[in-house]
Amino acid sequence: MRRAFADTLVQMARADDRIIFLTGDLGFQVFDAFCAEFPRRYLNVGVAEAHLVDCAAGLALEGWRPVVYSIASFLTGRAFEQLRLSVGYHQLPVIVAGAGGGYIYAPSGVTHHAKEDVALMSLIPGMTVTVPGDPTEVAELLPQLARLPGPSYIRVGRFGEPRLDSAEPIEVGRGRCVRPGRGVAVLTTGGAVIPAVKAVDSLAVEGIEPLLAHFHTVRPLDLSLVNAAAAAASTFIIVEEHGIQGGLYNTVAAWAAEQRSPVTLKRLGPGDELVFGNPHYDDLLRQTGLEAGAIADTVRQFWSPD
User: How far apart are CA 156 and CA 59, in angstroms?
Assistant: First the structure.
């Protein structure tokens, strides 16, 4: 995803001379091409996330289209006040890019974990919140965010993620029905869609055909796709690399309560606890049910096509 982000940023800057990139002392080598081609539109403010956001806000007030980039836990946590007041209060068109959302920086410890980034950004009025599932979604969503009149957040993963096999269009605010189905609906956001696809495809040989709906945009959520999933399935299995509060599960649960929907909700993902030590990323995914086998087993548990 990071390569797709960097390459798309260069393309955007070529097309729009208002695009300016600000980083918090990271992204070396990743953004070398941007820095070489647009040296006057590349600002490294150092390890100072609050200053990073305030600089972007000032630039936006002067007509620029800033893109700010730092580690997700630092950018959404340390600079929350500046994002809320300097950017959110003025509804400025600043793109906030959080690198390494979820547990991607697992070995670096709890300071680098960002399983609450979506929740924090969703608290800011007018903030569009996106969690792409693969490099293609990053490349398609980033230019769309740059055209929005207000602020937006995009969670950026790591390098080398597989691409999602789906012909569904990629539009901000619109979910994607990745696999049609019935009985059970698997709802995903972010990179969780990749193991979910593996799980759903593997179940086909057993005659189990759950619907798979992917939401790269968590705010605003595509309620038309949620309603369509509810019409096809009596159980939602929500899979997300995010904490319980403020993510996809929380948003769908609020929808279910408001609609008095009879749909059963089951969630796979991290809990409330902080993870200490320096665990391996793949180990944390297994422990929190974010792998194809756990998703398939959960679908089997609730499968009832009738």
Answer: 23
